[in-house]
Amino acid sequence: MASVSIRERKGKKGIHLALDIYDGGKRSLQSLKITLYNNPKDNEEKAYNREMRKQAKKLKNEKLVELNRFGYDRVMLFNSKSNFFNYAEEIVKTKIGSNQETWRTALQHLHKFNNNRKTLNFSQIDIPFAESYKRYLLKKLAQNSACAYYNRFRAVLNQAEKEHIIHFNPNNHVSAIPQADSQREYLTHEELQILAQTECKKPKLKQAFLFSCYTGLRWSDVTKLTWNDIKDDTIKFRPQKTKSKFMYLKLNKTAKQIIEEIREDNSYIFRLSYGNNINLILQEWVMRAGIFKHITFHCARHTFATMAITYGADIYVLKEVLGHSDIKTTSIYAKIIDSRKDQLMDCIPELFG
């Protein structure tokens, strides 16, 4: 049978109160962060002790109700993860590369909004809080950056609801920040030919980038790729970003040539680690080639998609190759290629020919 009692521990600075929680052979001690006067000297200190003991008794009764309703394991899970930042940090640890950096930056913005306090209890996150944080991000950042960081905040709340850490989710009442149309930088086939002939101070990075341009794989997937993942010119991999089902991707001739040049005994094909200098090295290489575009590693994925559309790929097939869950995401690339619109107009038969 579940039981909760109040424990008192005397210390130099006073009497510290804690809850002694017991259920089915499992026991834990939870501090109430309440300290009483050791030897109250006057009526004011005595009144304080009485009021704090009353508060402790109220918390004890609430904990017993929780224990009987949810069980020991669920209550302990809630207690350990009741701080949003602690819970979010566990999620961040599961991310890799640039995605993890985005998550960390998102948490930094929330810390600033929370006046740099280390604790943000889930109970504090209500509809006004979510609305206020949304306005804060839109005021401080460009819309797409605000969208990305607010989506991480929403993702933590959704996960907490899924695990029954919270029973009220503000996301059900506060809308997300919509993403604005933005310029997705990409390279043309001609520019890729120039880059292939241009020296890069990190040759393995050059190979990985070009490989991504001809496969559409993300940085997180390219750098996790092993020789065992390739059989009969086909890659079998599980996308690191979504951790969804295995995907199968046939290598085209260019992609095969790139990895054939670097065949080594290492298990990983591209032995690279993510750092702030990765995109700087890429940008230096691109500028050395006489191409003045802002290029990051993710632009390789944009390049693959725009090339596929340019050379006649079906947008629904491209959606599957890129692993998009929504065709709207893939449709963005179709909007980029104005030349396809010109081709469409030119293919209409003449009336007065």
Automatic annotation (TrEMBL):
SUPFAM superfamilies: DNA breaking-rejoining enzymes. InterPro entries: DNA_brk_join_enz (IPR011010), Integrase-like_cat_sf (IPR013762), Integrase_catalytic (IPR002104), Integrase_recombinase_N (IPR010998), SAM-like_dom (IPR025269), Tyrosine_recombinase_XerCD (IPR050090). Residues 182-346 form the Tyr recombinase domain. Keywords: DNA recombination, DNA-binding. The keyword Transmembrane helix does not apply. This is Site-specific recombinase XerD. Belongs to the 'phage' integrase family. One of its GO terms (molecular function) is DNA binding. It holds the Pfam family Phage_integrase. The lineage of its organism: Bacteria, Pseudomonadati, Bacteroidota, Cytophagia, Cytophagales.
